[in-house]
Write a structure and sequence with these properties.
The complex is a heterodimer. Chain A is mostly helical. Helices cover 74% and strands 0% of the residues of chain A. In chain B, 32% of the residues lie in helices and 14% in strands. Chain B contains ten helices and ten strands. In chain B, helix 1 packs across helix 2. The chains are: A mainly alpha, B alpha+beta. At the A-B interface, helix 5 and helix 6 of A face helix 4, helix 6, helix 7 and strand 6 of B. Bound molecules: iron/sulfur cluster (SF4) (2 copies). One iron/sulfur cluster binds next to helix 6 of chain B.
């Protein structure tokens, strides 16, 4: 089926070429990082994880979010998601590839990475994270590819693929839970040391992930003849809305616990993020942007009239994505490391080079997603499965 | 340093032999036999610990002497800025102990405290390390294998005492190569490092470098031996440890 990715319109080639150009150009900066070390990043002794690991965390959420389509389809036989399932699975593949990429660029001695396998250490959450992420990647590749191939040949899906799909649903929850455990089991990092972190991670993943997926699907509809089922899209938007409500609720629980108890350690990070301490206000504008956009997205998503307005929906989703990204892609890491163990603030900001290397990983992910979505849409077009719902949209 | 590498080759073999599920502790114990062969004079203990008399060594200048001795012995580079590497350093009461006190007596308020890795009994850095590059020795010392560390920095996030440093850049660029201690390796870029309680000196029957340089202000010994010097000082003085509420059980005590 992969050959389908080779034939495309000039626009398609231009997009692929553009991505390859970014990857190629940015890999020069990565080479520089390999030669000089992580000193080219803004990280420091106190903020020892930065933009890379934050993107990793955010993208694990994207990877897990495919389950919001796969679960209703397999567990509740919600047929309207039939055509979307494959996109959820392929998105997950792209997301996991990016996650692994961000891990590779983050570690100081990447050529020794196999040590994690050579000396398996079950008491390390990082070991488990590697296991679940790679497992999830394999599951999605196998299930997604097999089902698509069967669709193409008008064959029923094999029984085992369904079993694997069930496994991958449970697995999806595990990848983000384990990723939260990376943080929430560390003594002395108060912002992370909270039992609700894993739940918060899942909630934010289940709104932001499907939002990104929906945006990409809308784009796919623009550039191909594929038309997604309108009712399916409306349902997904509803799921996103619920998840975002839960996400905001969980955050407010955090705020209550910290400020009603008045325990300094619990309050400090939140105060640093939203008000600033010791004259450091680096993140304040970002966090308030996130807060305003987060509430704004809810205002646009909760009323059914606004949510079902397909002209407005992409915008509502986009601001939701920005809000959740600031929360998890910036605030979570920087707020977790600040105040540092000495109750001081060490500001962190990614350097240009750090951003370029990140762009490289994002471009690799976009390439994977483009190719997989191209194959999927071609197959859907070929089998005509997707054309019928298109008629019902116009009707 | 060589013997530590040999230990690792040893338990690499064990791992390959299918013992990979055995707990880290028992593997370390298997490796320990080799360490003890190193020298007849080697100092041994069940649990090494340090007591720092902050009344005797309580100024930045006095602690800098200790830091210099440590950093020279271990080829610790002097890097300006936020990406620095340090094994032993000075900081104030509030920073060290997480207990702000508005009305402290003046001498304590001005006092500086020597900070270093606590060689915690329940070390969170050991718990999180995905490669066992950071590991606990049977004598309580939390040691590191710089050749195995992948530089994931998980241990830095896990240490609540800020005891760990990462080699963001080539450390040799910031070392005076003419003054290197040939007995101890320099690190490569991309790995984490921290105080090692001078395992290499203990193996030769010597006291840690900072203890040597402290003129008696630092006492080092076996916590499990009631007759040891550390136990004696602990009996005679009021001491505290850093962040006891976190349950890591530091092995470094401070006489206040
Ligand atoms: S002080 Fe930090 S680095 Fe040292 S043993 Fe304890 S947790 Fe590990
Ligand atoms: S940076 Fe090295 S020592 Fe620290 S957790 Fe990772 S592999 Fe272990």
């Amino acid at each position: 089926m992969l050959e389908k990715a080779l034939k495309g319109s000039p626009k398609y080639y231009m997009w692929i070429g553009f991505l390859l150009l970014i990857i190629l150009g940015a890999s020069g900066v990565y080479l520089m990082q390999l030669m000089q070390g992580l000193t080219i990043t803004g990280m420091s002794r106190d903020v020892s994880w930065g933009f890379y690991i934050a993107q990793f965390t955010y993208l694990v959420g994207l990877a897990a979010s495919g389950v919001m389509i796969v679960l209703p389809y397999y567990f509740h036989h919600y047929k309207q998601f039939k055509d979307l399932v494959i996109f959820g699975e392929f998105m997950a593949i792209g997301a996991v590839v990016m996650c692994l990429g961000f891990i590779v660029v983050d570690i100081g001695q990447p050529q020794r990475m196999l040590n994690v396998l050579l000396y398996p250490t079950p008491n390390s959450i990082l070991f488990w994270d590697m296991v679940v992420l790679n497992g999830y990647l394999i599951l999605n590749v196998v299930v997604g590819w097999t089902c698509l191939e069967c669709d193409r040949q008008h064959l029923p899906h094999p029984k085992w693929s369904k079993t694997l799909a069930y496994v991958s649903i449970i697995w999806a929850f595990s990848i983000h839970t384990v990723t939260a455990f990376l943080y929430q089991g560390l003594p002395g990092r108060h912002y992370w040391l909270t039992a609700i972190l894993a739940a918060r991670f899942l909630a934010s993943a289940f709104c932001s992930g499907p939002a990104i997926l929906l945006l990409v699907i809308m784009l796919t509809q623009k550039v191909s003849t594929f038309k997604a089922n309108a009712e399916g899209i409306a349902t997904l938007a509803k799921i996103i809305t619920y998840a975002m409500c839960v996400n905001v609720f969980f955050f407010l629980l955090e705020v209550f616990t910290a400020f009603y108890s008045g325990i300094p350690g619990h309050m400090h990070s939140i105060v640093y993020l939203f008000v600033g301490v010791h004259g450091h206000h680096e993140l304040v504008p970002f966090m308030w942007t996130a807060a305003v956009l987060g509430i704004g997205s809810l205002c646009l998503l909760i009323p059914p009239k606004l949510r079902d307005n397909m002209k407005l929906l992409p915008w509502s989703l986009a601001i939701l994505v920005i809000a959740t990204w600031i929360d998890k892609g910036l605030g979570l890491l920087i707020g977790g490391f600040n105040p540092n163990p000495f109750e001081q603030i060490t500001p962190y900001w990614p350097t240009g080079k750090e951003l370029i290397v990140s762009a490289m990983i994002y471009a690799i992910g976009a390439l994977v997603v483009t190719i997989l979505f191209k194959v999927a849409t071609e197959v859907k077009e070929e089998t005509g499965a997707s054309q019928k719902p298109a008629a019902s949209v116009e009707a | 340093m060589n013997h530590t590498r040999r230990n690792f080759l040893k338990f690499a073999g064990l791992t390959a032999a299918g013992l990979c599920v055995a707990s880290a502790g028992s593997i370390m114990a298997a490796g320990a036999g080799a360490t003890e062969k190193v020298s007849e004079k080697a100092l041994k203990a069940k649990r090494w610990a340090m007591v720092i008399d902050t009344k005797k060594v309580g100024t930045k200048e006095a602690i800098d002497v200790l830091a210099k001795a440590c950093h020279a012995a271990h080829n610790v580079p002097d890097i300006p800025g936020k990406q620095n590497v340090k094994w032993l350093w000075a900081d104030g009461f509030e920073q060290a102990f997480d207990q702000p006190n508005n009305f402290m007596d003046e001498s304590l308020e001005k006092r500086q405290f020597a900070l270093l890795c606590n060689h915690c009994t329940n070390a969170s850095c050991v718990r999180v390390c995905p490669t066992q590059a950071t590991y606990k020795r049977p004598d309580g010392i939390v040691a590191m294998d710089y050749h195995r560390c992948i530089g994931c920095r998980y241990c830095m996030a896990a240490c609540p005492f800020g005891a760990r440093s990462f080699n963001f850049m080539e450390p040799r660029l910031h070392l005076d190569l003419t003054k290197l201690n040939k007995e101890f390796p320099t690190r490569m870029r991309g790995v984490v490092e921290k105080c090692n309680f001078c395992v290499e000196l203990l193996a030769q029957g010597k006291q840690p470098a900072c203890v040597e340089a402290s003129a008696g202000a630092l006492v080092f010994g076996d916590l499990s031996d009631p007759a040891s010097e550390v136990r004696k000082v602990l009996r005679e003085h009021y001491t505290i440890r850093r962040k006891p509420a976190l349950g890591t059980e530091p092995s470094v005590y401070y006489i206040i």
